[in-house]
Amino acid sequence: MRGFVQCAAALAAFMVGQTLASPVARSLPGPVQVTPKTGDVVITPKNFLNGTWKGNDTSKSEVVHSAAISGTLPIEIVNNLAGSSSGSINAYIQGRDTSGAIVFVLADGSFYYPPGTSSGVPVAISEDLAIPLGAQGTTTSITIPNYLISGRVYFAVGDLTFYMVSGGLVQPSATNPSDASANLNWGFIELTNDPTAGLFTNISYVDFIGLILGMSLTSTDGTVQTALGLTADAVDSICTSLASQTASDGYPWASLCQTSTSGAYLRVLSPNDYISTDGSAFSDYWSSYISKVYSTYASNPLTINTQNTPGNVTCTTGGSSIMTCEGSDVTFAEPTAGDIFGCNSGPFAVTGNAVDTAVVPRLCAAFHRGTLLLPGGNLQPSLSADNYYTTSPCNYYSKFVHEKEVDGKGYAFSYDDVNPDGENASGELTSGSASLLSITVGGPST
Hints:
It comes from Talaromyces pinophilus. Residues 70-439 form the GH64 domain. Pfam families: Glyco_hydro_64. This protein is of the alpha+beta class. The protein has two domains: 34-281 and 396-446, Thaumatin (Sandwich); 287-392, Beta-1,3-glucanase, C-terminal domain (Metal Transport, Frataxin, Chain A, 2-Layer Sandwich), CATH 3.30.920. 18% of the residues lie in helices and 27% in strands. The chain contains seven helices and 27 strands. The strands form five sheets. Strands 3, 5, 6, 7, 9, 11, 14, 15 and 26 form a nine-stranded antiparallel beta sheet that branches. Strands 10-4-27-17-18 form a five-stranded mixed beta sheet, with no helix packed on it. It has a five-stranded mixed beta sheet with strand order 24-23-22-21-25, covered by helices on one side. A hairpin with a 6-residue loop joins strand 23 and strand 24 (332-333). Helix 2 (234-249) packs antiparallel against helix 7.
């Protein structure tokens, strides 16, 4: 027994010595490699389109060749993806028709209504839904034959899988690394062509970055609007920057990136979407900063310029963990990391009056950009964009996304349009008289 104790003590001394002399480095978080599995379907509000199906027969589909009406929308798709060959990139156009039925646009321009189902288990759509694009440098034209509501135009290097389930359509999921389409490089633009409101299209990075897309919208009067998207190398570049940030502060920025089974970068999740898959991620990232903010504005007021009828609103904490703003019928408790990255929960869930509606976007944007403790940060918004993301902590995902935007358009978090001059930095294009939507795949044309 004594010999065992002596050996154990000697071993313990040896291990201590080894630890002091040669510390074992902790591994840092890295990218998430996808593991695609057929039928591994996760349904969330972000990949589910609620809708009915055409007719009452769930056993068959229907193809409708619509006559030309005012709801038609011509689309030109320019393939700028380096190294792509004819047929390697597919487009998928889907949404709801004006009756609320799920519909796809096929390669011949017809409306395809997939069979519905009463099953709670997703059923893969077997119809060939793909619209093949030409090789790099070519333009593919197609016309959406009728109005389309809550639509998306998907693009993928390969074949995406869509499912029907009781209640609607299940689309590919960026947050599910085991999604059937997870190993493909894909992305989408949002599109609604409404008979009353007109056309709305949007590129957003609030959720993720995938296949690089850009667009322009021409109206019948010749007016052209553009949202050029990100540079062609954006995903690789942003993932490299996020890995460097992880090496600097130890937080899982690198894990926002997903890689293919061969190790190539595919997409980048926003911190908000990544937290939905790992609730503990970034849990204490903002803690110290939040405490300093609430301490700073204990007696010194924080002024929120509502940029609307309420005017300037004064907010103070009184040394507590609750911020009170003049004229608001709610208070603002110290937010969590999830509250900040999502801007829609905790103190940032808009539940109050017009003051609350104005304070939430401006306060949440200030946290993302790290401007609340900068000189001049006691008035929000007031600082120019060159002050954003200059201190830590901040939303480095947003910082790196904006560095790769060609024309500065495209939200990287909710309320990314908050700024002193009211400039529209969204990736949304709208028209009541659209004549052509042009989409680029793989980066802007040079």
